[in-house]
Amino acid sequence: MILMCTSLTYENSQGDHFLARTMDFGFELGGQPIFMPRQQKIQGDAGEFTTKYGFVGAGRNLSHYIFVDGVNEYGLGAAALYFSDYAKYAEKAPADKLGIAPHDLTAWVLGNAKSVADLRELITTVQIVAKPVALLGITVPLHFIFSDPSGDTAVLEATDHELKLIEDPVGVMANSPQLSWHLQNLSTYGTLVADTRPLHDYQGFGLKTVGPGTGAFGMPGDYTSPSRFVRTVFNKHYSKPTTDTPSTMNLLQHLLDGVTIPKGVKLKPDGSSDYTQYRGYMGLNERAYYMEPYDNLELQRVEITDKMLSDWDTPVEYPLEHRNHIKHLN
Q: What top-level branch of life does the organism fall under (predicted)?
């Protein structure tokens, strides 16, 4: 079972920061936006833990609430992506650390850290423990990307028992291998540009152009993790800057179009299809979560309000509308 996802951060010209991701999977996860209030006790699969801060993200209530991405009241955003063959977890936590199941880490982070800098200190107090998630019956191999309103972005890869955040200079993450491998692999494509490359005559023969876009010749177009990483970095780097939240959300949708997987085009050995079940967008400055399911390309938004933080004490689920909107012009 392999889950393939892509994520990226973005800063618009107003200085507002965003974190976006695709959720690509074959098994129907059934996630929806959920608001988790402050001061919650969560009976995680590696033991109970508490949260301090309110947050909203994509999740599901199984034996307890499990989140795969979201943003909290301080604007810290988080997303969990598959990390097959590379994630390594401890069998149990040492006595001086809190044990956290990999699928519970997103909720713990959003509920307890104010920023990426804060998380760099807090992450030393926990240990990710190999515990299966009931929905899938396996221990899920995950790595994580975090970003906050300052633009500070880091990745957590549990490749050994020592947990530490890794700087992500391009603000993009996909799946295996490690981030360091993806960054080195970018060198292979370091000559790609958005401009049109000039053509040269060969043996006196004048070549005819195939049109604009020749600067990106050689950019990989498949759905493997290395290819999705390269395409996302390229498109993010060369995309026209945006000026406000609506235009930024529109750009992020288009950037994720480059790695969104339609049903049927990426088959697994058993014949089932991985596809992009939803795309999640976190407005870090506005403390808002946007979810875009496969069957409805309209953004569905939940914003954390002061009233929610001060008055609400139980989790709230927001059912998604699964109906494609068509505007009739005549």
A: Bacteria
